[in-house]
Amino acid sequence: MITHDYTEDQLVEQPAIDLFGKLGWETVSALHETFGADGTLARETSGEVVLLARLRRGLERLNPDLPNEAISAAIDHLTRDRSTMSIAAANRDVYELLKDGIKVSVSDRERGGQKTERVRVIDWENPAANDLLLVSQMTMTGPLYTCRPDLIGFVNGLPLVVMEFKKPGVPARAALDENITSYKHPLNGVPALFWFNGLIIASNGSDSRVGSITADWERMFEWKRVEREDEPRRISLDTMIRGTCAPTRLLDLVENFTLFSEHKSGLIKILGQNHQVLGVNNAIASMLKARKEGHGRGGVFWQTQGSGKSFAMIFFSQKVLRKIAGNWTFVVVTDRVELDDQIAKTFKATGAVSEHESDECHAQSGAELCELLRGNHRYVFTLIHKFQTPELLCDRRDVIVLTDEAHRTQYDTLALNMRAALPNAIFLAFTGTPLIAGEERTREVFGEYVSIYD
């Protein structure tokens, strides 16, 4: 925003900047930015949304063995013009490069010809190895107009975080509807800023919301806990920033709790919510403990109806596949055909499974389930009714069973059959309702609660 209100600056923006500094970010004001190589941000013009000097230094630091030509090719590919794409499609395109690195072709000086190298863009394992810069009041020029977001968080020169504030008493929603929405406009804003975006925060100091580039206000959500589910709930900008922008948590959110889902209405970007992030990380810790202790009881994941249970399953499985070594297979178990179809469609829409995988990984019988588990499939979808007998189907140790609503009556005997059929698997139950008296069998198979969100 061009004009700046004293109270907004002093009551909201400055405390936020101070907190970022305490969390390990370098902070700088660009209100009076000078341009050129020796300028405030080393930008040549206000039309640059990427801090190219910092990006190059970051890539050189993360890829010390690669030649300059590889670094330059990676920067060209990362920052190429994507203005013919929708913001969501451009963001997905960039996201894949951030997550998995950029393949470039370079001269093979030993054998001659060309060879392919992969250039790392972000060090996901060691957040402190990245260049973290928070810039306030940075002027950006789009196709027609100039805008000035309140805060932008750059990681290795890339604008991953955009924050917009209103003064106390003005609805936080106005920061999204009046400012951020206009910044995203293809003509009136600077859409290129959002090609690289990981998350957006809108706040008036007391009401703070976070969401993805495709989220409207109803899909922007609060962040009430930082580390643990048993913390007192705190609705504050401080909790929001600590929970989403502390370097380790920001990179976890971007790397492991980001999905893109194809819908008839278009491409939607999904950011994990507070309860999903804490719950999934708890579930992974419990799964690793069960694996180490050899009992297979991964735990019960209770999150209330409508809280995004299917997405939690995807976040869980995708993070395990990416972060924990092993030839993992996830068996997704439901008790109704329509649920089976629904979950498979969600996995397919987010790209967790391909169209082909979705079709061929539905077990229609116990024998087919046995066959699928012998193969090299990441996901297998089946109904609990396929476990009519306790016969051994698979004794692999890298199978994780994710069950939906596992405490229902029909799971009683069938769940024990499932344990016998997959004796070395780890079992995790996802449910939208709490366990009640008489459902102790669920604990016998799955263990204790690993996450509670009601």
Portion of residues in beta strands equals 15-25%
Give the tally of structural domains: 2
Instruction: Briefly note the structural class of the backbone.
Output: alpha/beta
- Which bin fits the share of residues in helices? 25-40%
Strands of the widest sheet, in order across it, are 1-4-7-8-9-10
CATH class category of the largest domain: Alpha Beta
Number of strands: 18
Indicate the overall shape: globular
Q: Give a short account of the largest sheet.
A: 6 strands, mixed
Low-confidence stretches: none
What report would you give on this structure?
This protein is an alpha/beta fold and 454 residues long. The chain is 36% helix and 21% strand. The chain folds into two domains: 6-65 and 125-259, tt1808, chain A, CATH 3.90.1570; 274-453, P-loop containing nucleotide triphosphate hydrolases (Rossmann fold), CATH 3.40.50. It has a six-stranded mixed β-sheet, sandwiched between helices. It is globular, with a radius of gyration of 24 Å. The relative contact order is 0.09. The model has no long low-confidence stretch (mean pLDDT 90).
